Amino acid sequence: MRILLMITLAFSMMMAEATMIKDPKTNLIWEDNMHVSEVKITHIKAKSYCAELKLGNFENWRIPTLQELLSIVDYKRYKPALVNGFNYSNKDTLYWSSTPYAKTSDEFWGVSFKDGATSNASETYDRYVRCVRDSQ
User: Fold this and answer.
1) CATH number, domain at 90?
2) How many angstroms separate the first and last alpha carbons of the chain?
3) Total tally of structural domains belonging to the chain
4) The pTM is what?
5) DSSP secondary-structure letter at 116?
6) Which portions of the chain are predicted below pLDDT 50?
7) pLDDT at residue 21, as a whole number
8) Closest alpha carbon to 131 in 20, 42, 24, 38
9) Domain that holds residue 53
10) How many angstroms separate the CA atoms of 76 and 21, rounded?
11) pLDDT digits (tens, 9 = 90+) for 98-121
12) Helix, strand, coil tally for the chain in percent (to 5)
């Protein structure tokens, strides 16, 4: 019984690690699973999704800031312009950030991992989200 429990625990830890990436430069932990490349949602839903997300034993997920999203862009790469290690990304559209667009109250900045470009979008548009959390 004890061996079975240890095997189950080891397997669940492997699965959790496969859904998260830790950036050693920033110490941020990023969501990296099929959801980040397949599900488009509004900014309001993205905020709820991240707040309710549980990966492994981790909670306290959030929408990343624009600067945090830009920290995982690799401008030497294209489709995706992401640093090595990430397995999932939609290469052709915007990912939400929590950084508001200064000119209007209902828009937020985002990053396209096609080429690392930034743009703004209305919070009512459907876009992708890659949640993040601090490692502490």
Assistant:
1) 3.10.100
2) 33
3) 1
4) 0.84
5) -
6) 1-17
7) 93
8) 20
9) 2-134
10) 20
11) 999 998 889 999 999 999 999 999
12) 25, 25, 45
